[in-house]
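Appendix B: complex inputs.
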Amino acid sequence: MSAVAEQRAGSVGSVGSVVEQLRERIRALQAAPRRYLAVLRTGMEAVDALLPSGGFPMGQAVELCGEAASGRTSLALRAVAAAHREQRLCAWVDGPRELYPPAASALGVDLERLLIVRPKAPEQRVWAAVQLARSGAFACVVLDLTRGVGATGRIPRVALAEARKLADAAERGGGLLLVLTSPESPADGVMRLRTEARDGEGWSVEVVRSRQGGTGARAELPWSVLYPDLGLEDGGRVLDVAETAADATPDFLREQGSALRNGCGILGQRPGRDAPMPSLREGLDSAGVAL
Amino acid sequence: MRRAYLHFTRFPVQRKVIEVPELASRPFALVEEVRGQRRVAFASTTALKAGVRPGMTLTAATALEPVLRHFPYRPEDETRALTALGEALMGLAPGFQLRAPDGLWLDAGAAHLVGGEEQLAAQALEVCAEQGYRAHAVVASEAFTSRALARYGTRRVEVVPPGEGARELAPLPLAALEGPEGAAFSALGLSTLGEVAALPVAAVTARGGVAGARAHARCRGEDDTPFVAQVLEEVLEERVVLDWPADSFEPLRFALKTLTDRLGARLAGRRRAAVRLTFTLKLDPTGQARVPLTLARPTSQAKLLLDLARHRLEEQRLENPVAEVSVRVDEHSEDRGQQLALGDAPEGDAALEVVLSRLVTTLGEESLFAAGLETVHRPEAAHGTRAFRPPERKRGLAVDALDAGGSGAAAESDEVQPLSLVGRERPARLLASPAWLDAEVAESGRLLAARLGGKRHRVTALAGPERLGGEWWSDTPYQRDYYRVHFEGLGPAWVFRDARDGRFYLQGLFD
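Resulting structure:
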């Protein structure tokens, strides 16, 4: 009987200590300051140092303007990854339908927390971005207004009224709105960063327009910062590979009429080889090696 | 059997005020046609104070109160509203029985699940208050006892123990009998139910017959009226007929609020969440407009449904005024509710649902998705689309648990490592289908330059190849040598030479 009573007393004591621990934890939680996300850092010190607030500022619209392959998308993806590290949601309004999720995932983007929106009509892109940014549910909304590589026609320039709408939406929602544009159709009225691909060695980013100052600041970085495995330094490395002798394509599927080498080659011959490579077997025979 | 009766004082008046809030504390009456005359069926408190009484002709009532507004009384609408209220209460009771037009019985057999009969009555009143209704609740063993006490009793919540009915009923007036028997007893000089109960049974039966005996038994706290639970409708549908055709959105807004409130309460009572809804607008004199609404996340929240309905219907262009609005739930699912953590604010999640639903309704369901990785080597097929269901954000106490399990998280990241290593060699932008490259190739087969968008871009750096091939077992095999190429004036790109035709194709941009 006494043993049961002791056991009961022990269990009551352990429950009491657990309750005490929980109380202590709640007290600590209440005392701790709320983690408030004010900027999204790209993780590249040179780029973060260019921006007046030390990163992409929340509650604002920022334009990343540059040529087709100048590092805009990677910069935006790094901002998204920074938001995902804080377990916040992000959205990507993918106008040209070109975002490649495996690459985004490699940059630290949590694909489950990234909403991809692909509106059918081009005029719905800005509307969708405004809705997403204004809701306040997303820490970072990326609006891709560039033209796809194969697309024809011009993308209309983002008008001042639309830019104001975007900036208002970002301010009301408290998230970051990144607008990706190309130099032929830039956006007006928002902070602009211009990215430029210089050569195989590196790329540059420059603050072109900013109300908080820092205009004209420029940073030059190597490509390895964005893509560590790009391997284009010093002209790149080319592996001399043999022809794929055993082409996996069955004969009946091979395109017979398309042997023209990009329209300017020799009929029926693979590029890179004027004549077939001498067989290894012949050399071995002449050397008297028995196979 | 224990049952709870909820009595809503002048239910049609309450309903009218909820639907048209501007009528609050204004004189108005609900009018029905009796033998060619329009007579007052129900009057608001202000109208009653002015002397308007039910049964009075509309002309007489208007003479008493010149600013009296009147609306047609439709009993079927009241029944529908009462049914919706009963369904909303099904979270507390397994069944309900209507007593049109101003009350309903609840099966109080499961009262112990909510902490007792008093708790059940109090919680039922809370649910009604959320809908905007004021009521009295009485729990008793007999139908008559509960109804009479709710109508004529003084307390808002009362529980009558079994066998105590007669004692509780004794002080009530004869009007509680609700029939010709009351008048007969009154003629005998009786005034309360207690006095009727004190009469000898044989004498009452001899004079009043079966009806008299029944009334006498009820006054003694005996009633064998069975409880017949209302059969639930299979299709969840709500309808509001507007008093006059609406040619602007403002009157529709009130109707929509009524509809979504009722629908939300019914869904919540059934523990269901709407997935797909259809709004039907009946136009005056002819015409109909149907507006479907698909929800990204199933919900039974009336406020959210109203927001979405408003957004969808505001944009409608109709040729005629709207006479009637109805909504039907085409598809519903189980309502799992939302588990909130300590210190959680549900506003963020609600905002997410609103914006998702809004985008889905405008852009189409296929325009919104989250990406997922596939175990496929072909680059353009290495990702798929799936529904956007973000994992719950870890907050409050859960964060500590996450920090404590840091070693586990590190192990997980190790598993992901091989995949991300391959991903690091991939471009951020990938063309949906590879584009043929207008390329200049040296005799050695090396890529020298390419024309893109009408401009010639010289190759300044080249790395590769990375040979990818496979799917020879299918109809679309591929064999490609991938190169990372830096084009002058453009930037690094991902091109491949297809072994099938020897041509160069552009597949992505390292943007």
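The radius of gyration of chain B is 35 Å.
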